[in-house]
Amino acid sequence: MVEAVTFDFWETLAQDSSENLRRARDLRVDGLRAGLREAGFDRPREALERAHDDAGRRIAAIWETGRDVGTREQVRILMEGLDPSLPGAVGGGAWPALEEAYAAPALSFPPAPRPDAAGALRELRARGVRIGLISNTGRTPGRILRILLHRAGLLEHFEALTFSDEAGIRKPDPRVFRWTLNKLGARPERAAHVGDNLAADVGGAQAAGCRGIHLANGTPAPLSDPGADDQGVQPDAVIRGFHELVAALEKFGLPPAR
Predict the structure, then answer these.
(1) Comparing C-alpha atoms, which of 59, 146, 156, 81 is closest to residue 117?
(2) pLDDT on residue 226
(3) Residue 255's pLDDT band (boundaries 50, 70, 90)?
(4) pLDDT at residue 41 greater than cutoff 90
(5) Cβ contact 170:176 at 8 Å
(6) Domain 4-16+111-250, classified CATH 3.40.190.10, yes or no
């Protein structure tokens, strides 16, 4: 019997586009430049763009180890790329504005929520299933993702939220699944996780003792999510949309509708 279901965020509950990501990048770069200028450190936009993209590669290398870092550390890495002395030279009063400029672009250019997600979440809740979210956060931290979930009308469905920037580790580490299930009061053998990434979502869930359900989008994985097409991972079920989720879970046993 499935008592709890957890979900991925990016490309599962919400889908982004390359154009949206480009606009968010431009807004982030412009905001960081304005914040540095206000602090007395004017830098050319082209230098900020190079530092932004180089920081992305350095942060991705950290992600490859299974660790994650928060917004302040990501901003520090970016500023080091501009000038190794810059993080120490920028006064403490300037950091909040720099962190906000870095973290918040998704609020202006949000990913599109899946139109069928809310209905599936409501159906599961109506059956008494406990709902959680487990997300690797990238450049957009958990505090911003909470706002996006609220705006999309999805936040109210979740009893537990785990974000990698807050946990310090990333999927597929099985600990993030176990932590979330502990918050939900559910045992792994009675839980399932839904996500688009075979390695991070399906493989991670199965390593934690849960069922892994693959949401097959037919879209390539972001560079920050290696292993999305890992053919060595065999999902317990494959769905093409949330309209297929309840039927897939019923094969493992679901409580009847109340």
Answers:
(1) 156
(2) 43
(3) confident
(4) yes
(5) yes
(6) no
The token duo for 66 is: 């299974």
Contact 195, 7 (CB under 8 A): yes
First to last CA, the chain: 16
Distance CA 142, CA 163 (A): 5
CA distance 110 to 130: 26
Residue pLDDT, tens place only, 203-223: 999 999 999 999 997 543 443
State both tokens at 253. 């046993």
Listed residue (245, 228, 227) closest to 237, CA to CA: 245
Segments making up each domain of the chain, as ranges: 4-16+111-250, 18-108
Q: The whole model's pTM is what?
A: 0.92
Helix and strand totals (H; E) in the chain? 12, 8
* Nearest residue to 2 (alpha-carbon basis) of 245, 253, 235, 178: 253
> Phi, psi at residue 68, to the nearest 5°?
-135, 160
Q: Which H or E element spans position 163? A: strand 160-163
